[in-house]
Design goal:
The protein is of the alpha/beta class. It is about 50% helix and about 15% strand. The termini are far apart.
Length: about 250
């Protein structure tokens, strides 16, 4: 399912996105986008069959311009990985975010992917199979209170993924959700995460394997059963437990 395809990977300049590029570029045509052109250039220069566009998926006009350029360049996408994401530590008792900061974070994780999906559907060749892969998070199953914007937006993308899968069930679009655990990228390090991290390259390989096996959801983390249990049976007590444990695991809290 992931061979001889034309694939867009948002947030392709680092982290999981970069690992996906290195594992997919040999057998596919890869287009990456992101905010940092230096990172995009480095990834494109280190892998075959990779081109890039500078595009910030938190900005509506940037998404529209990205797909306009893709169209002008004669590219028809078969696969999109909505991988771009940002995270924050936010205790509203202590910190004040500017409104623009709030919108930027939620747009990157939620509104941006939704807009990318709509543009992708509009340009796709609907006579062949197309793949939409949304990278959410384990926190989409049960929130971490100290990550309120990240948890809210990733849960929202999970809801949208389910709605999209239902709407497109009789079409040539297959919808896949990836729920990563803590991966060894800049994001958990930014939070001061002291827990065990999964290699980005190993996780990218497992994502590709899961998709090629036809799985519509991939949530391999050891915490997933507990999060589902807390969500179903102990939502209130679970929030207090998760809040206490996450503050302990994230340095400085």
């Amino acid at each position: 399912m992931l061979k001889q395809k034309t694939i867009l990977i948002t947030g392709g300049g680092s982290g999981i996105g970069e690992a996906l590029v290195s594992n997919l570029s040999k057998d596919n045509k890869i287009i990456i986008c992101g905010r940092n052109e230096n990172k995009l250039q480095k990834v494109a220069g280190s892998n075959e069959n990779v081109s890039y566009y500078v595009a910030d998926v938190s900005v509506p006009e940037a998404i529209d311009e990205l797909f306009r350029k893709i169209s002008v360049d004669g590219i028809v996408l078969d696969v999109v990985f909505n991988n771009a994401g940002v995270v924050e530590l936010w205790d509203l008792n202590k910190d004040v975010f500017r409104s623009a900061q709030i919108f930027e974070k939620v747009n990157t994780n939620l509104s941006g992917p939704i807009a990318v999906i709509q543009q992708f559907i509009s340009q796709a060749n609907k006579s062949v199979e197309n793949l939409i892969i949304n990278v959410t998070s384990e926190v989409a199953l049960f929130p971490i209170p100290i990550l309120p914007l990240y948890a809210t937006s990733k849960a929202g993308l999970r809801v949208f993924t389910h709605a999209l899968r239902t709407q497109l069930k009789n079409t040539n679009f297959k919808i896949v959700e990836i729920l990563p655990p803590a991966i060894d990228t800049a994001m958990p390090k930014q939070l001061g995460n002291t827990g065990k991290l999964v290699s980005a390259d190993a996780f990218a390989k497992s994502i590709i394997s899961s998709i090629n096996r036809g799985k519509s959801e991939f949530a391999p983390g050891a915490n997933v059963p507990l999060l589902k249990l807390l969500s179903r049976f102990f939502p209130s007590a679970g929030l207090h437990f998760i809040d206490k444990m996450s503050r302990k695991q994230l340095q400085g809290l």
